[in-house]
Amino acid sequence: MEVVEESVVIVGAGIAGLSAALGLHRLGIRSVVLESSDSLRTTGFALTTWTNAWKALDALGTGDTLRQQHGALRGNVTSSTISGLPVFEMSFKAKGKKLLLEALADELPSGTIRFSSKVVSIDESGYLKLVHLADGTILKAKVLLRAYPT
Q: What Pfam families does the annotation carry (predicted)?
């Protein structure tokens, strides 16, 4: 049984987990991301990303990379029934989930994401969280973030 101390442990290498890890990395805070599968879960086709989401991606430093791969869609247009002219327009972009996950993962330091790391239980030990993995490893975490759907 290996016991490893980590400041920040994030459970789940989806969009939320990788975004959190990248945001912390940009602030100089090291984290480890635990993913139960053996690779990024890139199933699914496209995500619609509105303006505020692009602002978040820009803050993480991945917005420009993703914009180069995707053109703008017309978006949501509301037209006047009298003139037929647009009275309101909201643009958005759609991108593949795979491209988004890869863009986030590519910006993380090597070794940040630990694949095939299934969490079996979590205990408390004082101010630490003890994260027990299926392989017998125990991670002592000061901060634990759950970033996976229930």
A: Lycopene_cycl
Q: Give the containing element (helix H, strand E) for 64.
A: helix 63-69
CB distance 131 to 119 below 8 Å: yes
Beta carbons of 130 and 4 less than 8 angstroms apart: no
Q: For 104-115, what is the mean pLDDT?
A: 96
Residue 60 lies in domain? 3-146
3-state SS, residue 124: strand
pLDDT digits (tens, 9 = 90+) for 45-56: 666 777 788 898
- CATH assignment of the domain containing 53: 3.50.50.60
The structure tokens 């602002």 sit at 55
20 Cβ contact partners less than 8 Å away, ≥ 6 residues apart: 10, 31, 145, 147
Question: DSSP label at 117?
Answer: -
What's the pLDDT tens digit per position in 29-41? 999 999 999 999 8
